[in-house]
């Protein structure tokens, strides 16, 4: 997963904004082999982004400021991964420079951008899918449904992702909820006590012994008068 910080978050973002937006991108992308975020910053600038990204378990890739410095750093990293056999990349940017990844055979590019964010035509042409996410700030909660754009032969169509199924408990008042929980716990304890008492009773029940009359067993007398 490749994140162009300037393109997706901005230059020198505040830590809360950086944290919320990168978190939204990570959740939308799902499991990835690794995530790299590239950004341009000089050594004289206070680099707070590296600490925020490290806390999110994201690899920060800081480069010196320059034209397309962050994009080129990500593309060089992706090229090394392609040489190692990686064929799928999630690109968080609308910059046309990332279209160069498709020059390697069997490479799949999926693009993640914010709603309304422009995507370069060249990148859109080589992307297998372009997914638009709701814009977030430090107060926006993640998990909202996101729209999807997919490239078809007749153009780009808009879709809607289904919201994840959620289960909610009934909205009872707090005293009623506490009473129901207490009743449930008491019933559970009672059932356990009954089960244990029955088990002990069955274990302590005396076994039946074979019944013997104590009388000698006589042999059957045959018609000839001899015992058989």
TrEMBL record:
Positions with biased composition (Basic residues): 209-228
Region (Disordered): 201-228
Protein name: NYN domain-containing protein
Organism the protein comes from: Saccharothrix syringae
């Amino acid at each position: 997963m490749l994140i162009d910080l300037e393109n997706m978050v901005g230059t020198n973002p505040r830590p809360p904004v950086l944290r919320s937006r990168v978190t939204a991108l990570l959740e939308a992308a799902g499991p990835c082999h690794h995530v790299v975020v590239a950004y341009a910053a000089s050594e004289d600038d206070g680099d707070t982004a590296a600490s925020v990204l490290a806390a999110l378990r994201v690899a920060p890739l800081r480069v010196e400021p320059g034209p397309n410095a962050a994009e080129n750093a990500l593309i060089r990293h992706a090229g090394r991964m392609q040489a190692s056999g990686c064929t799928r990349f999630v690109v968080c940017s609308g910059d046309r420079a990332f279209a160069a990844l498709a020059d390697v055979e069997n490479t799949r590019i999926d693009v993640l951008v914010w709603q309304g964010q422009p995507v370069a035509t060249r990148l859109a042409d080589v992307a297998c899918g372009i997914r638009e996410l709701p814009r977030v700030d430090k107060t926006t909660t993640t998990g909202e449904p996101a729209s999807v754009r997919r490239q078809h032969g007749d153009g780009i169509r808009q879709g809607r992702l289904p919201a994840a199924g959620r289960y909610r408990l009934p909205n009872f008042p707090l005293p009623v909820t506490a009473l129901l929980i207490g009743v449930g716990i008491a019933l559970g304890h009672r059932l356990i006590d009954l089960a244990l008492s029955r088990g002990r009773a069955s274990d302590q029940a005396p076994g039946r012994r074979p019944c013997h009359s104590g009388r000698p067993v006589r042999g059957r007398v045959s018609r000839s008068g001899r015992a058989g």
